Amino acid sequence: MHSSPNDASHQGNSAPLKRAMSTRHLVMISLGGAIGTGLFLGSGEVIAQTGPIGAIFSYFLGGVIAYMVMLCLGELAVHMPESGSFGTYATKYIGPGTGYTITWLYWLTWSATLGTEFTAAALLMQEWFPHVSVWLWTLIFAAFVFLMNMSSTRWFAESEFWLALIKVITVVVFIVLGLMAIFGLVSYQGFESAPLFSNLTAQGWFPQGLFPIFATMLIVNFAFSGTELIGVAAGETENPTKNVPKAINTAIWRLLIFFVGTIIVISALLPHQMAGLDANGVSSSPFVTVFNHIGIPYAEDIIRFVIITALLSAANSGLFAASRMMWSLSYKKMLPEVFSRLNRRGVPYVAIIVTMFGALPGLLSEKFAPETIFKNLLGIAAFTMVVVWMSICLSQFNFRRQWYKDGHSAKELGFAAPLFPIVPILGFVFCFITGISMVFDPEMLPGFIGCMIFIVCCYISYYSIYHKKA
């Protein structure tokens, strides 16, 4: 029997969705969302463009921006833990049209990425099994992620925990072995003397000048995207007041250590020209090169396996997030009621099925111009993410001003972002600069224009359909 949203007594907006997640699930979901191809493949790209010191600076700045946004989100999520998360906050504190648009944009971010994650994982499997069609692998992976999401929130959180754990362990082992090689505790091919920090400044501090640091900010910010999943999952978390702030702090610090540590190891052990991606897939991942030089057997196979789990874990959390966004739109009567139907395990199954169809453009990328489609989908996902982050900062800024106006103090909040109003303003400005950087990249421009059209369409559809009803 389907409980329509109206049956549930309105205890907050997530009454029908079960609260089944703990802090360890939250932290792993956000790490799982963030540690993906951006780190295993994209990090080399950033180093190649900005040089080692530039890349360390880029990722550090990216982490600081992500932290500011997450502090804003933490304050809102503890005050109102809802599964519609920033869509709901934007509706309340910016305007209903914006809330509607942000919810759709976040849905677009993940459904655009879903298809590319499945395709990329399938292409990796093909390196092992050249005779099996890519389509078959794509279907297998899509089915796996679909089943994990359809089973129950607890199952989803548990599967995400273990998938993400594989990535986290790999990154930790990589950093530890890399540092041992840098300080000469394990032998490293081609180098006699340790420590090996000379590479970091071999070409001067910023070999290509300062501009590439800002040009690569979109890649870097996208690498940190996924942390905001904590906000979406807050509506299905036990004791959000305690668990959400804890998860945000833990997740951001770990990500900064993982990302910056990885970049330091890669840049110290590889000349920066070697860090970028050549055309031969995983074997060109800086992780593989470093493991090979240290002399770890089957390095390529190990990293290929890890990247496949990384892709599946990102798709797993992506489908979760996108379907919850669609559910919340329907729950607020902005989409037909059918989208908020829950099965008896409390899973919004219609929203999950529809989101899977949203992944189709990404699946087509393998057959038609994979490079172009992949680049554009990545650009779209990165840009929509930046807009969502801007809305989080603005929502918190407006929320806090309203809170003070109503005669409350910051001490009364379950969790208050420090240094108000500096944090939301800086977070907003940095995200804005990152988004605009897309205009100057000819490869990203079509994606940027596409997103702008999508945003305009969202506002038009909101004001023409929904506003009339209201």
From TrEMBL:
Protein keywords: Membrane, Transmembrane, Transmembrane helix, Transport
Membrane topology per record: Multi-pass membrane protein
GO biological process, one term: transmembrane transport
Main location: membrane
Recorded GO CC terms: membrane
Pfam families: AA_permease
Transmembrane segments: 26-44, 56-78, 90-108, 128-149, 161-189, 209-230, 251-270, 302-325, 346-364, 376-394, 415-439, 445-465
Places the protein is found: Membrane
InterPro entries from the UniProt entry: AA-permease/SLC12A_dom, Amino_acid_permease_CS
Residue ranges constituting the Amino acid permease/ SLC12A domain according to the UniProt record: 25-444
UniProt-recorded name of the protein: Amino acid permease
Annotated organism of origin: Acinetobacter celticus
